[in-house]
Design goal:
The structure holds 2 protein chains of 2 kinds.
Chain A lengths: L5 E2 L1 H8 L12 E6 L37 E2 L2 E7 L2 E6 L2 E17 L5 E22 L10 E3 L1
Antiparallel strand pairs in A: 1-7, 2-3, 2-6, 4-5, 5-8, 6-7
Chain B lengths: L6 E3 L3 E4 L1 E3 L3 H12 L8 H39 L3 H8 L2
């Protein structure tokens, strides 16, 4: 599979090196959209997964509407804990008047050398045509948040 | 291996539209998905009750989303009329 949902292995190491700061006044994070097959720029196919270490342009969808290559800025939800689980999350992200076909996304640290955080697999191609492309993040809790460490 | 814990990535929900923005129904779905989450491991009668609540909530959200959009259009129409843009105001009123 060219796009496989995963927390990037390099991210796990970088957590131990204090590379990423998810505090609301911390680092800036972005979400970039990727395609498999012909959806990406120049018909390139993205290969993303646990081994991804940084943002790459291969297979990224082209700029359209409010989506600009490199992706959209994410609004952080401050890290929290519940029981023995620590978690953090992001606010929903929308690109409007956009014609996009994407199969997945990469969240990366825009402040810190574009180092990757995690890969999201949409399972199937999601398409907007001169419309809105919304990514809804899960509820910020110990069972659902986008990044959880138990 | 001495395993102290696990890390997980949650699932996102993607909603798209063609030739315009999301519909009221799609926005209601997004809101309800954020408010209500039902565990697969919950007992059947709890899940059934939660699903009924979810459907009710979706109808209420949908109704008030329609109302919010209508009221906003009303405000826009008023501003346009106040500025002499009667034709534009009428066009928006009919949306």
């Amino acid at each position: 599979m060219a796009i496989a949902q995963a927390m990037c292995t390099s991210f796990k190491k970088e957590l131990m090196l204090a590379t990423h700061n998810f505090a609301t006044n911390g680092n800036a994070f972005k979400l970039a959209l990727f395609a498999e097959g012909s959806g990406g720029k120049s018909s390139t196919t993205a290969t993303l997964g646990a081994a991804t270490t940084a943002f790459v342009t291969t297979g990224e969808v082209a700029s359209s509407g409010t989506y600009a290559t490199g992706g959209g800025a994410l609004t952080k939800v401050a890290p929290n804990t519940s029981g023995t689980t620590a978690f953090t999350d992001f606010a929903d992200l929308s690109f409007t008047t956009a014609t996009i076909t994407a199969m997945g996304a990469l969240i990366y640290n825009d402040t810190n050398s574009n180092k990757s955080v995690c890969v999201l697999d949409f399972s199937s191609n999601k398409t907007s045509t001169s419309g809105t492309f919304t990514i809804q993040f899960p509820t910020a809790d110990a069972s659902n948040a986008i990044i959880r460490i138990a | 291996m001495f395993d102290l814990g696990t890390s997980s990535v949650g699932s996102v929900n993607v909603m798209t539209s063609d030739k315009g923005g999301l519909t009221n129904e799609q926005v209601a779905d997004l809101a309800v998905d954020k408010i209500v989450s039902i565990s697969d491991e919950a007992p059947a009668h709890i899940r059934q009750q939660a699903n009924q609540f979810r459907e009710h909530l979706k109808k209420v959200m949908y109704h008030y989303l329609l109302l919010a959009r209508k009221e906003e259009r009303g405000s826009i129409v008023h501003i346009l009329r106040s500025n002499g843009q009667k034709e534009m105001a009428e066009y928006i009123r009919r949306l």
